[in-house]
Amino acid sequence: MPRIPLPKGRPGRPEPAVRPAGDLLTVSAVIRVSSPEPGDSRALPVLYEDEHLLVLDKPGGPAAIRGEGDPEQPVLESLLQQGIHDGKPWAVERGLEFLRSVHCLDADASGVWVLARSAAVRVELVNQFNAGKPLASFLALTHGTPLERRFGVNLRMGPHPEAVGRMRVDARGGRKSVTRFELVEAFAGCTLWRCHPATDRLHQIRLHLRSRRLPVVSDPVYDGKPLFLSAIKPGYRFKRHQDERPLIARAALHCEAVELKHPATGQSLRVEAPLPKDFEVALKYLRRFAGNPR
Predict the structure, then answer these.
(1) pLDDT tens digits for 119-145?
(2) Is the pTM higher than 0.85?
(3) Which of 108, 114, 188, 234 could be a cystine partner for 251, CB 3.0 to 4.6 Å?
């Protein structure tokens, strides 16, 4: 595919910077989107932006794209498009007319979310994510004790015929999915993994880990039980008349980085997202109370 030409910068704005691999563009900009429900708004920090891309730090919980969960619930991509249509200040100041996601990011997953600012850029980046080479790096916290420090999963997966929003292994009609896993840190009963998906499928990492009896923490869709402080802290005292909350209340999956070829220059571009607070809290208590597995 021919390179997409770089447009000239708009008056009053500097030419967009392309950062080489390893650099992290630190910006303070935050895009805030609101759903039709009163009081339901989401802050999406901007990790990187130029004339072709907008990369956001997605919070864990709301769906990024349509394809899972309640079809009546708004998804972030639609809310962003609505903001462009309504002429929200964040859209006007950037001159946004088009914004579409280029890769799958589960609703519960947090972290790097890449969006294209034109249809041509979207085609180029979707092709990159489906070229069989890992572009994204995820962290996943799982239950279970691993039998090996590194392993790969290669299987076919597709929608579950009896459970909306759930995927399953489907050797006949499913699509190929491949992920490579590396052990990062082991705890008593839990493990932190770095995950490199070579294909871009909904729920891919969660299903692959479940296939190895390593369900992701707080992922009931794939048998991942919550992680409670009482289960790992000796002498934990329950508070009266209060239910204990899990350390992390959504599937413990975070996209820590994406490295791709910039669609206009061909240069390597790496964008990273910091660990969200809930993930940090879970790891802090695991290190303190479950950091010496046998």
Answers:
(1) 999 999 999 999 888 999 999 999 998
(2) yes
(3) 108
Question: Per CATH, the architecture of 137-250+283-289 is what?
Answer: 2-Layer Sandwich (3.30)
The domains of the chain are located at 137-250+283-289
Cα–Cα nearest to 126, from 159, 103, 155, 95: 103
| Res 248 pLDDT > 80 | yes
